[in-house]
Structure formats: structure tokens, C-alpha cells
Specification:
19 strands, globular, alpha/beta, single chain, five-stranded parallel sheet
Length: 467
């Protein structure tokens, strides 16, 4: 085994060979599929007369196109119905494990794999979805891939990839009240830029990440991709093992003890050499909100919208575009801006801990008049747990809609969409133009607690004022 970073160790252990192109042929331990990027991949296999090489290493669910209000089949959206039927057909024909609605295990692909213990340290994981980086929270190396690569993994259980450099991002100290994992990753992206991670894997280290729960680490790794990195990870530790212990697919008995010894050996060595190291202080991070049209256009809640003269020259053109599109003026506060829609959910912030934090702020308060607010659990298991804890009642009594699990308004490939110029306070991961379903709709990214603060006041609000 190589010495050095976790990334190097896992990469070397999964290397099948070096291709003539210079790329590595990398074995993929777990392949996650859903209804959007898999139909064409299965068609390509059929055209070539190929079968799925290791069906037991592939797990499927439905998440992107699923309605979150009315689950009656056939779906009202005929294309969504067709995509689901295709997934049902392909998984059955290839003996692939599939978690449909009502199975008790359906949900957003990056929520269900960790909660079932499918995601484990030292794995290589691939999925036809950019936010596959989420699984790096466990000390796995996880890649979002395109449809032709989905085909390659189905057919060969390998991927052709160029090896990445590794940047260590260290954050130290205790987060201030009202500051969450979402704020940490938005702060990092704001400082390093949306292209800062191109060509890199990000290793998240330091006392701040060590103090985070697994679900908080998943939020951070989830948005590595928004910072331009191909993947992000945290070294496995006791927090990881406590989370995994007893889950459906986690090792049991003697195999558990052997697994922990193995996982510990994969951690980055004390003398590991990184291609770059960046250090942040947790005390400098405030509740962070995006104001523009990229996840890197963020500010602390108390800061004004930045002026062009405070930016690097190469960022000014997109800033001018953002001011116009978002209808914001440089130098003015974002705080107090009226919101129309408030969305809590997504693979970034649809887990049980996210809903607990949001419910703390919602309890005893009311959604402001004229605001549409809704909560979408990340999986059927999250929904059951939230209802067991009474979180659904807190949200409903506060005026939120309580929905069925799915990707929902994160990307609007389902009925949950913005209309016209609506402004959304969203706990999701992307604020691109049109991302939430309206070509002119606008998105402000923030933590779930901040989304609730916006919902109950009707405007962008510092959640610390309500805590």
C-alpha cells in the first residue's frame, strides 16, 4: 500500500491498470443508479450485447422525477412515469437491487446509501449524479459521472480516470451559534472560488470537521463539487464508526472489528504530502447566504452585496450579470430582501439532523403571509424518524407543507418548481439561473435554519436573531 493521503491509498488499492491514454482504470466498489442517467446507459449495453458485470455492486432508487405530493401511479408527468418504468424494467432484467416508493428504503440516492451502511470507508463509489461527492464524508472516494461512464461501470465495474491532486482544507475551532456545516462549505467556496478545486480532491481536516456529526460532514462533502473539486472526503474516525455500527450493510461481529482496523489504516498519514494546504478559522464563519448565480457568490448575512471594485477582475463580468438577474444592487444589504418560496430538503440538507435544526427555529412560529414553505425529507426512513419525533407536526403547525421524499425543488425535474420571478430561500446546493424550474426564478442558498428564519419573517433574516 502507498503511504500518504487517504486518497492515494484508496486510489492505489482500486487501480486495475494504467491505460494507453495515461488514465487509471479504477475499480468501482459501489455503483448507485437512479432513473435519470441510467436509461440511456442500459440502452447502450443492449446495443452492444453486454450485461451488467457485477449486479450485486449496483443499487438503484428513484429520486429526481418523483412527485413529493401525489405519488399515485401513473404519474401525471408522462415522461417521469416513463423514466420510472424504464428503471423498474432495467433493474429487474439485470438482477439489480431497487428501492421503489413504499419499500421503506426509497429516497435521494445520496441519503439512502449512507443511512443503510452501503457507503463505507475506503470504497470507490460512482453515481450518475454530480453530488456523489457526499459519500466522501465516510472516507470513501466518490465520483459523479456522466451517462457513458454509467454504461462503463455497469459493463466493466471500472472507470477511466485521471488521478487528482489533493488539497487539504483545514478548518479549526468551534463554530459560533447559528453557524452550521452548510455555512462552512459556502464560506470555503466563497473564499476559494467555484473553479478553485478543478483538478483536485479536497481533504477536509481540522478540529471543526472532527467535531462535526456524519450528517454535517456529508453536507460539506456534498458541495465539494460546487467548489470545482472532483471529490471531497473526511478521514474516517470514531464518529464514522459510531454512525455505521449496526446499519443494514455494515460488517457485523468479528468482521466489524477487522473493518475498523482496516479503515484506520486508510487514514492520511501524519507525514502525508499534500499538493496544497488551505487553513480557515471557524470563528470567522458567519451564517452565509448566496446573493448571485453561482455558489461562490456568497456573503456573511451581515455583509452587503459586494461591489465590483472589491472583486478580482475575472469575477466582475459574472457579478454584473448576477446583479441584473437577481435584481440586487451592489453595496446594499441582502438581509431584509423579501422571499416568496422556502424549501428545506435535497441531498445537501434533507437528513434528520437538518430537519431537527429547522424544527427548533419553526417551533411556535408561523410562516409569513404570502410565503410558500415546504419540507421534503431526504428518504422514507428520514420521514418515518421525523414523524416519530413529531417534527412533521411542528412544521405543519407553523404553516409548512410536509411532503414525501425526493429531490423536489433542488432541480425541478418534478412538479416542485418556482414560478416566474419568485425568489427562493433554499437549503439545496445550486443557485444557477433556472435551476429551480423557472427560467427567471431566483435562488438564495442557505442552511435549513436560515430557510426557516426567512419563511417565518418573509424576508432574508439572520437566524441568530430568532435563537
Amino acid at each position: 500500500m502507498s503511504t500518504g493521503t487517504l486518497f492515494d491509498k484508496v486510489w492505489d488499492l482500486h487501480t486495475v491498470g494504467i491505460l494507453p491514454s495515461g488514465q487509471t482504470q479504477l475499480f468501482i466498489g459501489l455503483h448507485l443508479i437512479h432513473e435519470v442517467t441510467s436509461p440511456q446507459a442500459f440502452s447502450m449495453l443492449r446495443e452492444r450485447g453486454l450485461s451488467v458485470l457485477f449486479p450485486d455492486r449496483t443499487v438503484a432508487t428513484v429520486d429526481h422525477i418523483i412527485p413529493t405530493d401525489d405519488l399515485a401511479r401513473p404519474f401525471a408527468d408522462s415522461m417521469a412515469e416513463e423514466m420510472l418504468q424504464e428503471l423498474e424494467k432495467n433493474t429487474a432484467a439485470n438482477n439489480i437491487r431497487f428501492y421503489p416508493v413504499g419499500s421503506g428504503r426509497q429516497g435521494i440516492v445520496h441519503v439512502i446509501a449512507p443511512e443503510q451502511g452501503l457507503t463505507q470507508p475506503g470504497m470507490t463509489i460512482a453515481c450518475g449524479d454530480s453530488h456523489t461527492s457526499t459519500h466522501g464524508a465516510f472516507g470513501a472516494i466518490a465520483f459523479g459521472i456522466g451517462t457513458s461512464q454509467v454504461r462503463d461501470v455497469l459493463a466493466s465495474q471500472t472507470l477511466a480516470l485521471s488521478k487528482l491532486k489533493v488539497r487539504k482544507i483545514e478548518v479549526n475551532g468551534k463554530l459560533n451559534p447559528g453557524v452550521f456545516a452548510k455555512d462552512v462549505i459556502l464560506h470555503i467556496i466563497r473564499k476559494l472560488g467555484v473553479k478553485g478545486g478543478v483538478g483536485y480532491a479536497y481533504e477536509f481536516a481540522g478540529t471543526t470537521f472532527e467535531q462535526m456529526s456524519m450528517e454535517e460532514r456529508m453536507t460539506v462533502c456534498n458541495m465539494s463539487i460546487e467548489g470545482g473539486a472532483r471529490c471531497g472526503y473526511v478521514n474516517p474516525d470514531q464518529v464514522t464508526y459510531d454512525y455505521l455500527n449496526g446499519r443494514d450493510f455494515a460488517p457485523k461481529g468479528e468482521a466489524w472489528d477487522q473493518a475498523i482496523a482496516w479503515w484506520n489504516s486508510l487514514r492520511s498519514d501524519a507525514d502525508a504530502v499534500f499538493d496544497d494546504v488551505v487553513v480557515f478559522d471557524a470563528a470567522d464563519i458567519a451564517p452565509t447566504v448566496t446573493w448571485g448565480i453561482t455558489p461562490g457568490q456568497g456573503i456573511g448575512i451581515s455583509d452587503p452585496v459586494p461591489t465590483p471594485d472589491t472583486m478580482p477582475e475575472d469575477e466582475r463580468a459574472i457579478a454584473l450579470e448576477a446583479y441584473q438577474y437577481m435584481d440586487l444592487k451592489p453595496g446594499e444589504p441582502l438581509q431584509g430582501t423579501k422571499v416568496d418560496v422556502c424549501f428545506i430538503g435535497s441531498c445537501t440538507n434533507g437528513r434528520i439532523s437538518d430537519l431537527r435544526e429547522a424544527a427548533k427555529v419553526a417551533q411556535g412560529r408561523q410562516v409569513a403571509a404570502g410565503v410558500k414553505a415546504f419540507v421534503v425529507p431526504g428518504s422514507e426512513r428520514v420521514k418515518v424518524q421525523a414523524e416519530k419525533e413529531g417534527l412533521d407536526r411542528i412544521f405543519v403547525e407553523a404553516g409548512f407543507e410536509w411532503r414525501e421524499p425526493g429531490c423536489s425543488m433542488c432541480l425541478a425535474m418534478n412538479p416542485d418548481k418556482l414560478e416566474g420571478r419568485q425568489l427562493s430561500a433554499s437549503s439545496s446546493n445550486r443557485n444557477f439561473k433556472g435551476r429551480q424550474g423557472s427560467a427567471s426564478g431566483r435562488t438564495l442558498l442557505m442552511s435549513p435554519a436560515m430557510v426557516v428564519a426567512a419563511a417565518v419573517t418573509g424576508k432574508v433574516t439572520d437566524v441568530r436573531e430568532l435563537m
